[in-house]
Design goal:
This protein has a single domain, classed as Mannitol-specific EII, Chain A (3-Layer(aba) Sandwich), CATH 3.40.930. 44% of the residues lie in helices and 22% in strands. It is built from six helices and six strands. Strands 1, 2, 3, 4, 5 and 6 form a six-stranded mixed β-sheet that branches. The protein is globular, with a radius of gyration of 14 Å.
Length: 156
């Protein structure tokens, strides 16, 4: 499964507004909740916030990958945002976050969930890719960047 298989233009926000980690998570959950794959928004919200209590998903380099698994989705669903301003996300490197990739997996689809987390992390470790995402003008441009980067990185 590829990132571009689950991430669509309507699940991408460029300039997501929020003042805190919680604001950003709520907005991202609201974004995926529009997907027909989400069966119960409150269970998705609970899965994301419970996972965040274990350890911050702010992994460093201005990037966070909040994620969780639940039976409240019919299939894996994702959303991506570039925040309007840097957000204190309690990141491992203690730096603010501007790039957020939310991934919600189905309880019994552990393998694909882990594979996608790994794939997202590898792409986001590339400084040039992160820079291009931050300077993107639209959701369409962001989606095109993901498609291009994923194709060249994993299939080239």
């Amino acid at each position: 499964m590829r990132i571009s298989d689950i991430l669509t233009e309507d699940l991408i926000v460029n300039g997501l507004k929020g003042d805190s980690k919680e604001d950003i998570l709520e907005a991202m959950i609201g974004l995926v909740a529009q997907s027909p794959r989400v069966l119960d928004r409150s269970k998705v919200q609970n899965a994301i916030f419970e996972r965040e209590k274990i350890m911050s998903t702010g992994v460093g380099n201005g990037f966070a990958i909040p994620h969780g698994k639940t039976d409240a989705v019919s299939d894996i669903v994702a959303a991506f945002a570039v925040t309007a301003k840097p957000i204190d996300y309690e990141s491992l490197d203690e730096k603010p976050v501007r790039l957020v990739f939310l991934l919600v997996g189905k309880d019994n689809l552990v393998g694909p969930h882990i594979k996608l987390l790994s794939r997202i992390s590898r792409l986001m470790n590339k400084e040039e890719f992160r820079t291009r995402l931050l300077s993107s003008a639209s959701s369409r441009e962001i989606l095109d960047l993901f498609r291009h980067e994923e194709a060249s990185y994993f299939e080239g």
